Amino acid sequence: MRRGEWPEIATVSGIECVGLVVEDPSGTLPTGTRVLALMGGMGRTRNGSYAEYVSVPGSNVVPVQTSLDWSELAALPESYATAWSALHVNLRLQRGETLLVRGATSALGQAAVTLGAARGATVFATTRREDRMPMLSLLGARAFLEDAGLRERIAEERPGGVDAVLDLIGNSGFAESVRMARMRSGRVCIAGFLGGAAPVTFDALSSLTPGVELSLFASFAYGAPAYPLSEIPFQQIVDDVASGRLQAKPAAVFQFERIADAHRLMESNEAGGKIVIVL
């Protein structure tokens, strides 16, 4: 968005935030209510969260009760909402199934690994860096290197294919994800584009596997009737983070005055998780 590569960009960036209600014209949320908010056009069609005051559609605001520090709470909204919807709605993940998360050391990937393990699934998770594999193990996953031999190693573990694949690599990797899913019952969800958004050649006969379901989830859908935020158990997620049942601490926290440094860290791919800005 900062580079101008997104089709819709507002003057003020930022697609999620947490804070206190100053005013709710509908009267639903009293002043001082602790809330989280995400999307609803923030940063795209309306000014976003890089600010002291943020105006957000009521459909995209959720009240929560918690003693979590603001920086810990701010690490949750978009990543955990997207992970929850991708796993529960698109992939319909069930206890005892096998989940493969590609691009798992991203903030969204870590949220998906954590929620998948909590769901009772066997979680496989990929990373391009060997030094980040122990982190994925601590989150409850079996870690694999994201390289040319990934498909063969997954096949050794699950000869029939995995039940569900959450692909955060995107256009450059989804065809391989489809081939790693179980024939007739496998599900693949694309929810990120870590590998870039450049178009790729797509041929249905060579790129798809019979009976494997391929879908997309994007968090800008939140607030629409088909994707109400009310279906996401935010209070339970917040409580589980506070109790330690879910691991969701931010990888780095910056004061707003150092937001340029935060962007440099993000572009360096060295953050290893969620970056939070505190006003």
Structure description:
The chain has 279 residues and is of the alpha/beta class. It is 27% helix and 18% strand. The chain has helices spanning 70-74, 77-90, 107-118, 133-138, 150-157, 174-180, 204-207, 234-243, 259-268; strands at residues 16-20, 34-38, 61-63, 98-102, 122-127, 141-145, 164-167, 187-190, 213-216, 252-255, 275-278. α2 (77-90) crosses α3. The protein is globular.
At the first level of CATH, the class of the largest domain is Alpha Beta
Q: Nearest-angstrom radius of gyration? A: 19 Å
CATH architecture of the largest domain: 3-Layer(aba) Sandwich
Secondary structural class: alpha/beta
CATH superfamily of the largest domain: NAD(P)-binding Rossmann-like Domain
Main attributes of the structure:
3-stranded antiparallel beta sheet; 9 helices; alpha/beta; Rossmann fold; 6-stranded parallel beta sheet; 2 domains; 279 residues; Quinone Oxidoreductase, Chain A, domain 1
Question: Would you spell out the secondary-structure blueprint of this structure?
Answer:
Elements lengths: L15 E5 L13 E5 L22 E3 L6 H5 L2 H14 L7 E5 L4 H12 L3 E6 L5 H6 L2 E5 L4 H8 L6 E4 L6 H7 L6 E4 L13 H4 L5 E4 L17 H10 L8 E4 L3 H10 L6 E4 L1
Parallel strand pairs: 4-5, 4-7, 5-6, 7-8, 8-9, 10-11
Antiparallel strand pairs: 1-2, 2-3
Helix pairs in contact: 2-3
